[in-house]
Amino acid sequence: MGKTNFTSIRIITADIKRLVLFFEAATGSAAKWATDDFAEITSKSFTLAIGSTRTLAFFGDGVAEPAANKSVIIEFLVEDVDNEYLRIKDLTNEIVQEPTTMPWGNRSLLFRDPDGNLINFFTPLSNEAKEKFPVN
After folding, report:
1. 118-129 pLDDT per residue, tens
2. 119, β-bridge pairs
3. Is 41 helix (H, G, I), strand (E, B) or coil?
4. 46, 61, 91, 125: which has the fewest Cβ within 10 Å?
5. Total number of domains constituting the chain
């Protein structure tokens, strides 16, 4: 296998406009719409793609189910997780964990998007975490 590069994660949703608006508000970045059924929010490190259930027709029946994620956490490096919490708590109905310092040196805020996907905003605190995830 040749060299691979992680480039994006795609969320499938039954309400694409609602989910895109949520992630635009959460990330402070505007989405680029390719079609009415597909949008992307890009950063320097990766792309968050959001597709409607109608896009599943290109992949085959039963390959994905919207609002059914119970195993993936979508993580965003932020400059100050405590300040982000003040903003995010009014954006979502489900804060899973208020900002908490984790044993591995990150301070993390866990919340759910409107489809129930788990989102982690984190800020590195320890020297080791800061070296791994420099905030620019």
Report:
1. 999 999 999 999
2. 74, 111
3. strand
4. 61
5. 2
Beta bridge partners of 60: none
pLDDT in tens, 87-120: 999 999 999 999 999 999 999 999 999 999 999 9
Q: How many other CB atoms sit within 10 Å of the CB of residue 37? A: 16
Reply yes or no on whether the pLDDT at 26 is more than 80. Answer: yes
CA nearest neighbour of 85 among 95, 72, 75: 95
* Neighbouring C-alpha atoms within 13 Å toward the C-beta of 24: 12
Q: Which of 59, 77, 100 is the last residue of a domain?
A: 59
Residue located via tokens 């591995």: 104
Final residue before a domain boundary, out of 41, 59, 77 = 59
Same domain, 80 and 26: no
Residue 69: per-residue pLDDT? 87
Residue 73 is assigned to a structural domain of this protein: yes
Q: What is the pTM of this model?
A: 0.90
> From residue 62, how far is each of 51, 57, 58, 68 by CA, in Å?
15, 9, 11, 12
Largest CA distance in the chain: 47
Which domain does 120 fall in, by range? 69-136
d(CA 19, CA 119): 13
- Backbone phi, then psi, for 85, in 5-degree steps? -60, -45
